[in-house]
Amino acid sequence: MTTRRRPNARRKAARARAVLRANGLVLKAYGAERQFAAAVAGLRAASAGPLRTGAFAGAVPELRLTAQRTVEGRRPESAQEAGAAAGRLVAELQGSAGEALTVSPPERQLDAAARKAELVATVLPELRPRVEALLDRLRRDLPAADSPVPAHGDFHVDQLLVGDEVAVVDFDQMCLAAPALDLATYAADVVRGRDGDLEAVEATLAALLDGYGARPDDLGWHLGAAILGRVAHPFHRQVPDWPNRVDLMLRAAEAARA
């Protein structure tokens, strides 16, 4: 019988973020200076950008604390329902200025995916050959980091609020990245390790691209990397039947990169 090992949790505190709502503000405190600095840059750029979002209200460097105005609205019913609007928002954001933002090249997405992949290969060693084969393909086909554009950096349906117009929140990871990044992360978020995930991704992508207006270069690469970066979620959350859910998510990542 195969023994599954649970790795020790480390470096959690440095990546931690505390969030509090008070008096019409969203307050966020960050565990690391680099995380705080990136968040300030992203929140400033988003507040000055074209999308409806909570206005940046200030920062306290000594506490690594940011403040922004709250935004009212409801969550969309589903990623697919909001897909066309999300695609339009991505296109609008990419047309804005972002000179002060940090560049996030494809290597960074690959590194993040590789860390999650190693965790999966550790707790489910029977999946290691497939994980390593997918990582090899992603490394071999790594896109060039040409012409990066402003990107939300963690774009998914829960970042949208629907009101008179659609607002976007949580720009802590805003960066300059490949045009395909935000579209891929949005579509990858519908993969949860369930039967029908591939169909859900296809339907969500169709709506996204309809709103965006084109299919950006290297979308399949970014989608595969984004799904692989999520593949350990069922284990982290200890959802029922998590080994099978992990396997199904890995299958979705393989199909995206096929």
Write a structural description:
It is a single chain. By secondary structure, the chain is an alpha+beta fold. 46% of the residues lie in helices and 13% in strands. The chain has helices at residues 12-15, 33-48, 83-94, 106-123, 128-140, 181-188, 197-212, 219-228, 233-237, 242-257, and strands at 17-22, 25-30, 56-60, 65-69, 149-151, 160-162, 166-168, 175-177. The strands form three sheets. It has a four-stranded antiparallel sheet, with helices on one face. A two-stranded antiparallel sheet has the order 5-8. A two-stranded antiparallel ribbon has the order 6-7. A hairpin with a 4-residue loop joins strand 3 (56-60) and strand 4 (65-69). Helix 5 (128-140) packs parallel to helix 10, helix 6 (181-188) packs antiparallel against helix 7 and helix 6 (181-188) packs across helix 8. The chain is globular and about 50 Å long. Mean pLDDT is 92; it is low at 1-13.
